[in-house]
Amino acid sequence: MYRIRAYRSQGKYITSEKTFQQLAQLSNEELLRIRPYLKLPRPISPKVKNPKKERIKKQLNAATTTDLRQVYGIGEVFANRIISARDKLGGFLLEDQLNDIWGLSLETQQRSWEHFVLDSTPIIKKQNINNITIAQLAQHYYVSTSLASKIVAIRTQKEHLSSWNDLAAIQQLDSVKKARLSLYLSFN
């Protein structure tokens, strides 16, 4: 029994009668007598893994709905939401902008980066927040009509906005939204 425990403590398994016979120091007759009571696991043959095909990642800013639907978890609705957001923004600049797609789970976002890449970022001409109208501002993906109205009201009151600090009174503008908007809007 001691030899069997020592053998197992090495992380080895007894997978054949021959190994068991050697460890238990049994004669051929003794092994024949206890053979009906032995239950040894079948030897495990090493599985040959299929090498994963190298997936060629596509540009997210050029992806079609068909491309997006290849990702598990992205159906027609999410594919349309992603493309709609991308078109309204003029293209994604950061990977975490997929967080802003309503209802898209974190797991699906992570899976999407197995299929897509954000190598070439689009050239975005930032709009001057001091010259933009409420209607133009409200067309932006990250700005609602009420937020656009508040920004323009503060701009009118101060005559000129010089930084995001000028808009600190607006509760709708949290740090994440300011970071997103700073990618597309400027103060000069």
Estimate the helix proportion, in percent: 25-40%
The overall average pLDDT, rounded, is: 88
Major β-sheet, in short?
A: 2 strands, parallel
Determine the CATH topology of the largest domain: DNA polymerase, domain 1
Find the structural class using helix and strand composition.
mainly alpha
Q: How many β strands by DSSP?
A: 4
Along the chain, the helix and strand elements come as HHHEHHHEEHHHE
How much of the sequence is in beta strands? under 5%
CATH class of the largest domain: Mainly Alpha
Low-confidence stretches: none
| Lateral arrangement of strands in the main beta sheet | 1-2
Explain how this protein is built.
By secondary structure, the protein is mostly helical. It folds into three domains: 2-37, no CATH class; 58-117, DNA polymerase, domain 1 (Orthogonal Bundle), CATH 1.10.150; 127-186. The chain has helices spanning 2-9, 17-24, 28-34, 65-68, 76-89, 106-112, 134-138, 145-158, 175-182; strands at residues 58-59, 116-117, 127-128, 185-186. A two-stranded parallel sheet has the order 1-2. The protein has a two-stranded parallel ribbon with strand order 3-4. The radius of gyration is 32 Å and the shape is elongated.
